[in-house]
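Predict the 3D structure for this chain.
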Amino acid sequence: MDTQDLSAPSHAQSRISGKNHHSGVVHDNTRHTTRFTVIGNHLAQHRELSGLAIGLAVYIQSLPTGARADIKTLTDRFPEGATRIAAALRELETHGYLRRERRRIPGGRIVTRTVSCNQPGGRARHADEPDRPAPALPAPPARPAAAKKRTPRKPLPAVPRPAYPAPTLLQTATDLLAGLQRDDPRLLLAACDTAHLAPGVAAWLERDVTPTAVRHALTTDLPPEGLRRPAALLAHRLSAQLPPPPPFRAPTSPPAVRHPLQTCEGCDRAFRSPEPGRCRDCRLLSPSHL
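Done. Predicted structure below.
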């Protein structure tokens, strides 16, 4: 006797039975035969990734090998801004769906290669290996949040310190750091990173460097891709490019006081004096001086 597949509906049964009304999802699926990408449920139903991160992961996995997937290209493709897309890519890196590797190509130039991982924890495939379909794997069970181990955050490099850390000077430095994201969205800094970097910026301002010059030194010639720790890069620049103190300037004597012109009350001659009265000659000829 043949065994009947109880999980498959009969051909006479409609897709949505009139006796099984419910408000859940009902799938109206058609089998794909061309132009499709296999996505694991561990990604599509990930409990810690944002919707934007899941969407970007699906899009990147659907791209052909060699397609560009940097922040600028993705910003041109999607309506979300560069800041949100950069944050979503960091989510995918944290959970193992994306790696960004810096490699030296013939000619000496260093480029960043984006590696998309359809199964976190899988081995990295070399560029000369042919594409092979990955075997179907069961979705890994979700681990409790307490079981996950986080890598300790590497401390930032030390920065210079101003000789006189006045509150107004430190506030100017903090405001300058907070505005760097307008030059490059990747320079959006956390509050703790800003507090660490502010004394270094104050040390530059204390040396007669204008805020515009400091901002230019921190934001010029940034790497086009792979800026994973912007605060560490800024700390390095503040220390490595610290300008020398301004040259010593000897204090100058104050200018001589120049009194206004007055008209002598005795001879009508003009003379300089802080107050009206008589000129020197008339004072000498007055009876009190005879």
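The first strand starts at residue 98 and ends at 104.
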